[in-house]
Amino acid sequence: MLDTLNQLAGGFDTILTPYNVTLIFLAGMIGTVVGALPGLGPSAGIALMLPLAAGMDHASGLCLLTGVYMGTMYGGRITSILINTPGDAPAIITALEGYPMMQRGEGGIALGISAISSFVGGMFGLVVLIFFAPVVARNAIYLGPPEYFLLMLLGLSTIVLLAGEDMLKALLMVCFGVLVSTIGADYISGHVRFAPVPEFIEGIDFVAIIIGLYGLGEVFHNLEQRVTLNLGKPSLKMSDYVPSRAKLREANGPTIRGSLMGTVIGILPGAGATIATFLSYALEKKLSKNPENYGKGEIAGLAAPEASNNASVPGSLIPLITLGIPGSGGTAVMLGALIMFGLQPGPLLMIKSGDVVWAMIAGLVLANVFLLLSNILLIPLFVNLLRGVQGVLASVVIALCVVGAFSLSYSTFNIWIALAFGIVGYLMRKNDYPTGPFILAVVLAPLAENYFRQSVMLGQGRMAIFWERPISLSIIGAMVLAIALTLVLRMTMQRRRAALAANEESA
Amino acid sequence: MLNLNQTRRNALGLIAGGVAALAAVPALAQDFPGGRGIELVAGYGPGGGHDTLLRTMAKILQEEGIIEEPLSVVNKEGGSSAVAMGYLNGHAGDGHYLMSVTSSHVTTPLTSNVGIDYTDFTPIARLGIDPELLLVSSKGPYQSIDDLKAAGKMLNVGGTATGSIEHIVAIEFGEQAGVEVNFIPFQGDGDVVSALLSGQVDFTIGNPGSARDFIEAGNFKALAVSTDERIELMPEVPTFKEQDLDITMSLFRGITAPGDIDDETRDWLIGKMKELSENAKWKEVYLDPNGVVPGFLPGDDFAEYLGQTQGIYKDALTKLGLLK
Fold first, then answer.
1. Residue A355 in contact with residue A10, Cβ under 8 Å?
2. Å from A142 to nearest chain B CA?
């Protein structure tokens, strides 16, 4: 413990120079802006900074990259909340609760609460990274394809929560999502599925789909309905931006639970931030006293996923720095950066270049503090910017979406994909088909499919592999328990409601 | 309205095409690159193998003064390098575009209908090879090739993607050593490493780059290497050949230019790549950290090598039922 603190102090010693502090501050800001742009997520942000980082000394370069990484996680929520266009996958859930708050004129509050939850989540993940990284990494690898398959199944089961009124429509959307996710090369069989042109070989970029579905779909819908936003005139009234104490108290529990969930799931190299946000949203809705408010701007449903989203950043760095295994798109680019610096990512990284790694961790702590401050101070800017352009918001959103889609692979192909899914999104909204189950299936179905096939292959054709392993057996146990609990709860609720209705009738 | 836009776009397209045609006129050979920068095209995203190779290469070429003209790395990702191949092919005749290539340059045209293959390009140089190692866990029950042969059960083998070189090596090993192997494809080196670390597979096939530290830390043991001779990086690891298994197959890393470039340009580029491969910095900053074995082959030799490699893949993929 003392040794760890000493090393961390050494790290702070390295980075607390005017140059490094300024650099970390700027990195956070750049990350926020990049993350806010639809289509540019953590991987793109880190990649953009690679050439710049290459010219710096190792500690500064890594601080720049991780600062941008953390920044994009803060930034992703901004467009989700303000214009219902998630900047990257982990921000999808944020839009579900954040955008309704925005429509109610509470966009500033939503941004404030989510910034604070993000900070708490990030710090939580960092503490785990600092004190438990080696232990955690040694144990995380024992989770194999069977465990990951069950985890994905758990994720897919949250479809019930995102379904809305009509279960049949939700299931239809799930099927559609599964179908879309099968496009592209399948590394397990080695065959390419449904690829009429080479652009489809690697599958449809998931971010192009969310840009279309949420961003463009929303615009098309609003244009038809002639929705006029009334966000008020630009103002600097503090009560518009600073969440009241009651609202913060409402966010407390969810933030802590979300942080925990994000750290745990983020560490697992096969899972990552997106599933962490889905699961913590599901958990909050389950625990909530008024689940019917979800989807209408519920603070708990906003705070929890935001906390887990940011907690997963340090979480995903754990397997990277202890084993050289990237757990997310962002850390995969970081892996390339480590190699570029001539540092060997692997089990010896902490031993051979411990000082650089500790400097990077210290940089992350500092970046997180800067990001909280700058993000809270920037809220009035973002909100007023939006108020200023609300008359032409549709055009602004379309422009952002097109640029975002283009920047995914610097080709026009993804613009057409986004447009196609914009029309799909518009039709879904018009006919009341829920988008949540669709997007969840697109993200999780291929993972579930691949983990399932790997598991059966590992078991050499025997299904018993799913219940012969202690960890997977306990996950199955937990799932059965959760389902049973839900059913019992639903039955008692129905009985109570029926009794209530009967009472009213007799009265 | 739509028609008007269509016409305007067509007109713009014509103009753009005209400009492109003008630009594509090859510069006079003697003054190549004629002050114009060279674009290095990576068929995969930033941070990946192709990207790292090109960025490191660009840095050394400039810092060591091998190429004075500006070099820029461009990522044209998508379609397992098919998108980049199409992009490079669009610049046929212009040596100001270079692309990094690995086995996907040969396999993607085999497995999908891309319409072009390696013969449509001008191979410049093979810069190195990534040998395949047969790896076991130091804590596991199998510590030698003989242990594996005597396992008496179907062995689980980890590697990346079906149809990859790891897969081909694993199948070859099974056939020649007379053991049943069950290949399990994982997504990326990281997953393969954790599968072996946690004992979920009996052995894996992988590159020195991702395995070296685990060998040094005592987690893994390399039982064989897929090259003709032992590699400098791991002199203690015997080859498959030494153990009476005829497996010599490695991933290659090279550079190719668009088709139809003139001979002077080609020779200039080959010369520069040769200079790069002989530079001490290159070995220090790229080859060694990435565990890549030097193996420079200039133009025609590289072309011949590509031909052989295509043959090997074609046979292996047909045998695996991935090609009709």
1. yes
2. 5
A 263-302 residues inside an 8 A Cβ radius of B: 269-270
Residue B159 lies in a domain: yes
* pLDDT given for residue B20 in this prediction: 42
What residues are paired with B185 via a beta bridge? B159
User: Which domain-ending residue is among B228, B248, B268?
Assistant: B248
Task: Assess if residue B73 is contained within a domain.
Answer: yes
Residue type, B156: N
Low-confidence ranges of chain B (pLDDT < 70): 1-31, 46-47
Per-residue pLDDT for A158 more than 90?
A: no
- Asked if A458's CB is within 8 angstroms of B184's CB, the reply is yes
Task: Give the DSSP H or E segment for B246.
Answer: none
Query: Does pLDDT of A486 surpass 70?
Result: yes
Cα A35 from Cα A48, distance rounded (Å): 12
Query: pLDDT tens digits for B76-106?
Result: 877 778 888 888 988 888 889 999 999 889 9
The answer to whether B193 contacts A324, with C-beta atoms less than 8 Å apart, is: yes
Q: What is the C-alpha separation between A178 and A192, in angstroms, rounded? A: 16
B-chain residues near A268 (CB < 8 A): none
**Is B284 inside any structural domain?**
yes
CATH, residue B147: 3.40.190.10
Contact A454, B185 (CB under 8 A): yes
Is residue A195 less than 8 Å (CB to CB) from chain B?
A: yes
Q: What does the pLDDT read at residue B2?
A: 39
Which residues have CB under 8 Å from B100's CB, separation 6+? B40, B41, B42, B43, B50, B53, B54, B253, B254, B255
Question: Quick check: A378 pLDDT over 50?
Answer: yes
- Residue the block writes with tokens 């202890």: A322
Do B147 and B233 lie in a common domain? yes
pLDDT in the model for residue A230:
63
Kindly state whether B86 is in contact with chain A, defined as any CB-CB distance less than 8 angstroms.
yes
Specify the higher pLDDT residue, A51 or B255: B255
Output A59 or A507, whichever has higher pLDDT. Answer: A59
Same domain, B117 and B212: no
Contacts of A450 in chain B (CB under 8 A): 187
Q: Which residue of A has its CA nearest to B219?
A: A347
CA distance B30 to chain A (A): 32
> Among candidates A88, A371, A190, A203, which has minimal Cα distance to B319?
A190
Give the total number of structural domains in chain B.
2
Tell me, what amino acid is at A494? Q
Report pLDDT digits (tens) over A386-412. Answer: 888 877 888 888 998 898 888 877 788
Maximum mean pLDDT: which of A85-94, A180-189, A478-487: A180-189
Domain hosting residue B310, numbered range: 34-129+252-319
* Pairing outcome for strands A192-193 and A184-185: antiparallel
* A487, HSE (Cβ side, Cα atoms, 13 Å): 6
pLDDT value at A198 more than 80: no
**Chain A contact present for B182, CB below 8 A:** yes
Domain residue extents for chain A:
2-468, 472-507
Smallest Cβ–Cβ distance between A458 and the set B156, B160, B317 belongs to: B156
ipTM for the complex? 0.80
**Cβ–Cβ gap B182/A187 under 8 Å:** no
